[in-house]
Amino acid sequence: MNKAGFATIGLILLMIIRILPLTAQEFTGELKDKYEEKKAFKQEVYDKTLSFIRQNPNSPKLPDLYFNMGELSIEIDVDNPAQTVSYFEKVIALQPDYERRDVVLYNIGYYSFMASLNERNDLRLQNLDQVINWPESMRLSEQKLAKSIAAFQEIMDSYPDSEYYTESIYRLGTVYFELALDARNPQEYYSRAIEYFDVVANQTGDPLQHYGLFQRGWSNFSSGKFERAIEDFSRILEIIELDSLRTRRAFFEADAIENIAFSLIEYDGTDYDQASVAAAKAKEIFTTFVNDDYGKL
Questions:
Q1: pTM for the structure as a whole
Q2: Each residue of 79-106: pLDDT tens digit?
Q3: What is the DSSP string of the chain?
């Protein structure tokens, strides 16, 4: 190719480079405009549906309308999850045997949990001077999370075929893990969290199975069960290596290795005179349990 040809290609590349940022900005702006347009439409539907409900309090369609309000509220009332909960609660209050009761229960459980977290966090932000020892009013409790626990538990007990079955069990584990983090005596709550995460970790082929395993490991670590934590995080690394697409590596690998390291630190305890048990355990984990990628110590 002659110099003129190279010059032409260079000019074209320069033009592309200059155009790309503008194109990306335009694309982002277009997406934002479409989102705002879609949100405005949802707001209009939300307002009209609410108006219809108020004008027709005896309509036989109220359960479905409140269900729709709940789904719209997830986006419209994003900063007020308690409002979302109120709509879904109306569905069950009006029709206890609602066809999609499991979906309603899941939303009640999830958004009431989020509402409790938001309330606690807001209180703490307003009272940072008490951070060293939060009072009970600024801690989660089973009583405060009773609505979430009851909703998720009902799905677990009564809807084994629901698409929300495993996720509800996972959420129960999360609820009890959060309770443990807030509790003055957390061991009971960690044990409950581990029980639920264990169920999820044993749901072979479920998309949440490995998340359950990871959270079980984290719960074991947090409750001082370091050997079990090491086993769980080691299993995570084994799963990563068996994943031909390596899609799980980005989600789990760094945290799994870090948590194994922290567990090994705790594994030795405070006896500084004897040879390190953790060092021997580390070699066992990273060579025997996993593979050469993690075993070059």
A1: 0.79
A2: 999 999 999 999 999 999 999 999 999 9
A3: --HHHHHHHHHHHHHHHHHHHHHHHHHHHHHHHHHHHHHHHHHHHHHHHHHHHHH-TT-TTHHHHHHHHHHHHHHHTTT-HHHHHHHHHHHHHH-TT-TTHHHHHHHHHHHHHHHHHHHHHHHHHHTGGGGGG--GGGS--TTTTHHHHHHHHHHHHH-TTSTTHHHHHHHHHHHHHHHHHH-SS-HHHHHHHHHHHHHHHTSTT-TTHHHHHHHHHHHHHHTT-HHHHHHHHHHHHHHHHH-TT-TTHHHHHHHHHHHHHHHHHHHTTT--SSPPHHHHHHHIIIIIIS-HHHH--
